């Protein structure tokens, strides 16, 4: 059974059917089999956070998932967030705050931020730093990344308040 | 940094998983959250012939109130424990500790059964199971048995689980509502493995310590209970001198390693400081609750 097995998986809203070897990592499946190179592969052992994606809505390290485990799953990657002309609010915040230098860690930072905005109060910068502590930026551009997450969190709060009022 | 080839079997019930383990003759590995196992596979530190995936077994993730104890399913994710109202109410010390477990993306996926079976000496859940006198339910083709947490952790990454065993439930005896508690940890970076950590649960009777448990990690090959220190403080009047004697006993009992992150001497110093802080907080909480 180390032979390839057929899986069905939804990535960024598109359904795929692919044969995968059991040992194939989700990160390699996304990049090599689907050509979705927006997910970056750094350490390949769950430390750097660069390959973070959403699996069934929850942030996860794609280097610590086997593609074969994801038959029937819904995966979201950085490519699914927005387009160059219509950025996702989190992408826009990163753009506004110059929250990327070389850009290697950025996809993981974006996907982590999206999960944090739903699950963490992000009441202050300490919460944000704690929330991002599993994602490494080797340009050390953390200040602007924290500012970007702050902006995204504030905008989300305003949007939710508007919604509650209207 | 890619896993070696292996066969893959997605079990749909515990019995099927155990049968597959038995068939593999000691060469199989159960995968739950995979947050420790996958790095080991990527590094090729392990080369199992077959991975037995238990993620599709229904009803293995739960936190249940069962009279004198809380029962936790092996596939319960860290994130579920962290946000469980039942855990926050019954075991505030465990609730606090969960916030120190790795990072959100890891907590979304990692499981209690996996963490205990992996038995990293610097992981929070093995230490918590020891502190809370957990009873670990283990199943194999030969049947089901209970292993006390104190008999479970044999060495770094080594447990009393034998080939063919699967951890199927964690039972935590409830604490008294008035029990004081504290959890203290120092790591180089938020979410990293601890340099040292101390957790305390304590009952007081007036000025006296009627019962105390002290758990530690990062300072030995396994998580540890500071048994001698517990004995020193049990039945004593809480005082600066009693705390100092307890801290001395803790420092004498630990055998920390020197590594890249900290020297043995620093870890021994640190565990004493953390114990002082934890004892003071637990005492304070138990006194406030019993007033």
- What strand order characterises the main sheet of chain A? 2-1-5-3-4
Q: The CATH topology of the largest domain in chain B is what?
A: Uridine Diphospho-n-acetylenolpyruvylglucosamine Reductase, domain 3
Distance between termini of chain A? 56 Å
**The first-level CATH class name of the largest domain in chain B:** Alpha Beta
> In which order are the strands of the major sheet of chain B placed?
4-5-10-6-7
Number of strands of chain B: 14
Supply the CATH architecture of the largest domain in chain A: Orthogonal Bundle
> In percent, how much strand structure appears in the residues of chain B?
25-35%
| Large-scale geometry of chain B | globular
Write the layout of secondary structure elements.
The complex is a heterodimer of chains A (166) and B (291).
Chain A: E1 5-11, E2 14-20, H1 26-33, E3 52-55, E4 58-61, E5 74-76, H2 89-96, H3 106-119, H4 125-131, H5 142-165
Parallel strand pairs in A: 1-5
Antiparallel strand pairs in A: 1-2, 3-4, 3-5
Helix pairs in contact in A: 2-5
Chain B: E1 7-10, H1 14-24, E2 28-31, H2 37-42, E3 50-53, E4 63-66, E5 69-72, H3 78-83, H4 85-90, H5 92-98, H6 104-107, H7 112-118, H8 124-131, E6 135-140, E7 143-148, E8 153-155, E9 158-159, E10 166-173, E11 180-187, E12 194-205, E13 208-217, E14 224-225, H9 227-233, H10 240-253, H11 264-290
Parallel strand pairs in B: 1-3, 2-3
Antiparallel strand pairs in B: 4-5, 5-10, 6-7, 6-10, 8-9, 11-12, 12-13, 13-14
């Amino acid at each position: 059974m180390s032979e390839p097995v057929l899986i069905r998986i939804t990535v960024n809203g598109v359904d795929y059917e692919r044969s995968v070897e059991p040992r194939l990592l989700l990160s390699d499946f996304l990049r090599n089999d689907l050509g979705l190179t927006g997910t970056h592969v750094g350490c390949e052992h769950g430390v750097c956070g660069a390959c973070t994606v959403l699996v069934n809505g929850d942030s996860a390290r794609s280097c610590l998932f086997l593609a074969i485990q994801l038959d029937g799953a819904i995966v979201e990657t950085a490519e699914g967030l927005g387009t160059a002309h219509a950025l996702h609010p989190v992408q826009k915040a990163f753009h506004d705050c110059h929250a990327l230098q070389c850009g290697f860690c950025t996809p993981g930072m974006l996907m982590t931020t999206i999960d944090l905005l739903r699950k963490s109060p992000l009441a202050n910068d300490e919460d944000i730093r704690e929330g991002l502590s599993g994602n490494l930026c080797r340009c050390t551009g953390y200040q602007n990344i924290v500012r970007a997450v702050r902006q995204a969190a504030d905008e989300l709060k305003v949007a939710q308040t508007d919604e509650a009022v209207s | 940094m890619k896993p070696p080839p292996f066969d893959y079997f997605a079990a749909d019930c515990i019995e099927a998983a155990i049968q597959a383990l038995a068939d593999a003759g000691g060469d199989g590995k159960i995968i739950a959250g995979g947050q420790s196992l996958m790095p080991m596979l990527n590094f090729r530190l392990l080369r199992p012939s077959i991975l037995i995936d238990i993620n599709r077994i229904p009803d293995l993730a739960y936190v249940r109130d069962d009279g004198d104890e809380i029962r936790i399913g092996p596939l319960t994710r860290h994130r579920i424990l962290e946000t469980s109202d039942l855990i926050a109410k019954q075991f505030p010390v465990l609730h606090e500790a969960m916030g120190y477990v790795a990072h959100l993306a890891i907590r979304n996926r990692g499981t209690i059964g996996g963490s205990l079976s992996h038995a990293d000496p610097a992981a929070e859940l093995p230490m918590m199971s020891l502190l809370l006198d957990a009873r670990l339910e283990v199943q194999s083709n030969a049947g089901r048995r209970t292993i006390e947490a104190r008999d479970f952790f044999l060495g770094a990454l080594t447990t009393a689980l034998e080939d063919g065993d699967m951890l199927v439930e964690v039972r935590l005896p409830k604490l008294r509502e008035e029990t004081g508690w504290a959890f203290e940890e120092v790591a180089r970076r938020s979410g990293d493995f601890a340099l040292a950590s101390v957790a305390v649960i304590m009952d007081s009777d007036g000025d006296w310590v009627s019962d105390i448990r002290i758990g530690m990690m990062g300072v030995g090959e396994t998580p540890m209970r500071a048994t001698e220190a517990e004995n020193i403080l049990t039945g004593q009047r809480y005082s600066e001198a009693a705390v100092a004697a307890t801290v001395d006993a803790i420092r004498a009992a630990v055998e920390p390693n020197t590594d890249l992150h900290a020297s043995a001497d620093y870890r021994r110093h640190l565990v004493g400081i953390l114990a002082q802080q934890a004892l003071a907080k637990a005492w304070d909480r138990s006194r406030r609750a019993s007033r």
